[in-house]
Amino acid sequence: MGGVLQVDGVGQIYQAANGEIEAIKEISFEVEKGEFISVVGPSGCGKSTLLSIISGLYTPTVGSVYINGSKVCGISRETGYMLQNDNLLEWRSVLKNVYLGLEIRRMLTPEYKNYAKELLKNYGLYDFKDKYPSQLSGGMRQRAALIRTLAVRPEILLLDEAFSALDYQTRISLTDDVYKILKREKKTVVMVTHDISEAISMSDRVIVLTKRPACVKSIHNVSFPDNEDFPLQRRNNPDFRRYFNKIWGELDVHV
Ligand code: ADP
Ligand code: MG
């Protein structure tokens, strides 16, 4: 007990036209403040469902989610959500896109506006604030989407396959950028991905889910020396392979 996030016996059954679909069986875990957790599992096992439940978008069929000890009921202000698609609005400038979350939450105050501009400055997008999304590269678009998510100051960041749509090179360098931003902003992160390498390169712990209905198969602590702790450096460390092989062997993707 005492983590910033507790997922407590969460299960989800969808009512579909052809009957019930059990997406999640019974998932429990805790996340400490400032921790970076990845959840990996085969495609269709229920990862996005789990994140939607943590965000408060869906109410689970059984179980509960607690943030700082309070039960999540409905969309929570403490979480920010980032998806594979950056969802930037093409007709709005980068700055106006970054303000969007603040507008929706009626938080467009001078203080929050300044914080948003600070983020743009710190993370190399301030010179592009008056440009439109179509004028940015894929990696810059995702960084803009991240800054928009951070602008409302969520305590916990939820990333759902946030890098999968990008080409390999962009993905590798963006994960390095994003990792540094999230550490510097001291965010707690739950990232869902089917990419084991991505999970190992960024996380303190990796939670492996079974195939649908998902339950927790195993949890792995991941640690690298302090001076080799960025995603790119981790990928070059000999231990990286070791973690990869261990987790790969547990993933139910083998036919
Ligand atoms: P993942 O993100 O791991 O690929 P999802 O959480 O998206 O998995 O989906 C898990 C299962 O639940 C899939 O079989 C999917 O078809 C089903 N599912 C997801 N959302 C819904 C929904 N809104 N209604 C009915 N079935 C759904
Ligand atoms: Mg998904």
The share of residues in helices is: 25-40%
Structural class category: alpha/beta
Residue ranges: pLDDT <50 for 5 or more in a row?
none
Dominant shape:
globular
Q: For the terminal residues, how far apart are their CA atoms?
A: 38 Å
In angstroms, what is the radius of gyration? 18 Å
Hetero groups bound?
Answer: adenosine-5'-diphosphate, magnesium ion
- Element order: H for helix, E for strand: EEEHEEEHHHEHEHEEHH
Total number of helices: 8
What do you see in this structure?
- The protein has 255 residues and is an alpha/beta fold.
- 35% of the residues lie in helices and 26% in strands.
- It contains 8 helices and 10 strands.
- It has helices at residues 47-55, 94-104, 110-122, 138-151, 168-184, 196-202, 231-236, 238-250; strands at 5-16, 19-31, 36-40, 62-67, 70-71, 79-82, 156-160, 188-193, 205-209, 214-221.
- Strands 5-4-1-2-10-9-3-8-7-6 form a 10-stranded mixed β-sheet, sandwiched between helices.
- A hairpin with a 4-residue loop joins strand 9 (205-209) and strand 10 (214-221).
- The chain is globular.
- The model has no long low-confidence stretch (mean pLDDT 93).
- Magnesium ion is lined by residues 47-48, 161.
- The site of magnesium ion has 3 residues, from helix 1.
